[in-house]
Design brief:
The chain has one domain. The protein has 6 helices and 8 strands, in the order E-H-E-E-E-H-H-H-E-H-E-E-H-E. The protein has helices at about 15-20, 80-90, 95-110, 115-130, 155-160, 210-230; strands spanning about 1-5, 25-30, 40-45, 50-55, 135-140, 165-170, 185-190, 235. Helix 2 runs antiparallel to helix 3 (about 95-110).
Length: about 240
């Protein structure tokens, strides 16, 4: 069984979706601390003039550094209207706006109380549209030693899952302590080459945007084909 682990991400970028697609089980880390500068509660989207802009879900900052991301509440509900209006304006002329916008309208109609619920719902939509059938497990639902130091957390989750292969992002190679992994667990690093695809309004290609950008430009079938093509790039130990 191939396992991957990552924090929740608001409409994840292609690299994360690629890693999850190649996994049998994906553990979403909802017991870790929220990083205000990361992509857990925000992501980059194209503007109407082809630039890029962060859309951010506002969260309650009271004691948020002492609370796991799964317990953090959304600060106000007006973000849903703002985000949907921005996406309508930025992407309404894109080839597959008619396919994507009705789905987003339903997503933004829900009154989410917890930040993690809103982010995980965005991930679920992304998985469905990209045809990703990987089993998703919340970290908070797993049995493991919660007194462990952060450096041991990934290994503890791998052991708790019963996986015999851990698929890590390539960026983790510089800090992951490979000696901590049991002998029966194969450690692999996902090799992701960001594909170039048509971006309607952009004068130059922007990589690393939220996966919605791909869907608006290529549609569901085109987005799925894009990930399938990258799957041949391989997994390296």
């Amino acid at each position: 069984m191939i396992l991957s682990i990552h924090q929740p991400s608001y409409f994840p970028w292609l690299g994360l979706l690629d890693k999850i697609r190649k996994s049998d089980v994906f553990v979403v880390m909802d017991e870790v601390q929220l990083s205000d500068s990361a992509y857990q509660h925000r992501n980059l989207f194209s503007t109407v003039d082809g630039q890029v802009k962060f859309l951010t879900i506002p969260f309650s900052k009271k004691d948020y550094l002492q609370r796991p991301i799964g317990e953090i509440e959304i600060a106000s509900a007006d973000w849903r209207k703002k985000h949907f209006n921005f996406l309508c304006n930025a992407y309404r002329k894109h080839p597959y706006a008619g396919e994507v916008l009705p789905i987003l309208e339903q997503y933004y109609a829900v009154d989410y109380r917890l930040l993690a619920d809103a982010v995980l719902a965005s991930m679920s939509i992304s998985f469905d549209l990209f045809g990703i059938e990987t089993q998703v497990v919340r970290q908070s639902a797993m049995a493991y030693d919660r007194t462990l130091r952060r450096a041991d957390l990934v290994v503890a989750l791998v052991k708790a899952s019963g996986a015999n292969c851990y698929l890590s992002g390539s960026g983790a190679k510089s800090y992951l302590d490979e000696s901590l992994f049991p002998d029966h667990v194969e450690l692999r690093y996902n090799q992701f080459q960001h594909p170039v695809y048509p971006q309607l309004a952009a004068s130059e290609f922007h990589e690393g945007l939220a996966c919605l950008d791909v869907l608006f430009n290529l549609g569901k079938e085109g987005a799925r084909a894009l990930l399938r093509e990258n799957a041949t790039s391989g997994l390296h130990a």
